[in-house]
Design brief:
It is built from 17 helices and no strands. With about 475 residues, it is mainly α. The protein has one domain.
Amino acid sequence: MKERGLPDYTKGPIIKALVGLSLPIVFANILQTAYQLIDTFWVGRLGAVAVAAVSLSFPVIFLMISLGGGLAIAGTILVAQYKGQGNRWQVDHVSGQTLLLMLVSSAAVSVLGYLISGPVMKLIGAGPEVLPEATSYLQISFIGMVFMFGFFVFQSLMRGVGDVKTPLYIVLATVLMNLVLDPLFILGWGPVPAYGVSGAAIATVGTQGVAAVIGLFLLFSGRYGIHLKPEHLRFDLPLFKKMFNLGLPASISQSARALGLGVMSFLVASFGTMTVASYGIGMRIFSFIIIPALGLSMATSTLVGQNLGAGHKERAGDIAKKSLQIGFVSLAVLGVILFLVARPLTAVFIPDDPAVIESGASFVRIMALSFGFVGLGHTLLGVFTGAGDTKATMIQSILALWVFQFPVAYILSKHTALSAEGIWWSFPVSNVLAAAVSYIWYSTGSWKHKLVIGPEELHLRQEILEEVVVDEGIQ
């Protein structure tokens, strides 16, 4: 098969490159979020207890994914920088090693997650009416974790080489499948029984499996910037060490966020099912609205990584500056819009419970006040990630949730008259403080010198090119 050409992001207009990468990522992330939104929509038809079960389960799933997610991020960083350097052999090799490690990790996560589902739900504080549904949803989700990890790696590697359209097409097809399978398995139809909350997990696992198989086939086809071969799946211990050192802070960063969400869920659960349902709906909306910031962050990561790999530090700095401006302004505008439509938007998810609608709308309005800083913070994470400065992302994550948000949420909700609303106010406080700390770090410029592929690999690249020339000359 003939390989498709990919754009050269180490030259040309920066805004055009940012838009060209960001938009497909944004659309793909919207579609990915649609999995959760579709689940919440149909599960919401079963009542507040069902919504609470899915809401309490999400942080646990996120945590288990985060334990292996750092390795995927390490692979993405290396692939982007090798792509900018022009070292195709290393791009393929790193991709194969990343896939291998993630498959092993997903198997371990599946077994561990399945076993701890019930005890963890009890620990978080799921009530007797929520516990069975939440446990079942979690266990089915963990059974299919290998598919989720597999497609996650495919998306990450494609983003590293600058191909963001192919994952978008795959996600679109699988979300359309999920749109049909969700009501089928949740509510039942004909010979298919109604599985309730568990049906949402069954539908998602099935569609994620289709996506993972397609992604794996494309990686081995060699048409999309990466060409995996069997030799790339042999363990490379020196590369594993590099990926571990690069990926460990990223894993800690993601795990810190996931654990923070879990602890927040525990705090939320102490205020009862209505607050849990309001929190779950609000977080679903929040995760959907910040997708533009996530898309811009991922695009920034790819562009910064490829340009640093090519030795273009000044261009990488210009990319970061323009990305930060776009991130702050665009999310601030979205925040204003969300503030104005908070109540009707909340009512879409659980139309027959006025108390949950009012509480959820209040949560959304309070969060919306700091969306500009959310955009700034996520874009800064993209800059640090692309440069390979994963320690910066780790520190920001720990500060945001464990130093700023949770203490504020606990104090305001448990020791002031705000009660549950105090949890809502912890979001703007942590968003502003975390973005400020990250911007100070960014301003030092130290991230420009965090290139994770050393000069000795430039010589390796030259030797490889010379060998190719000789071989072709002989042939």
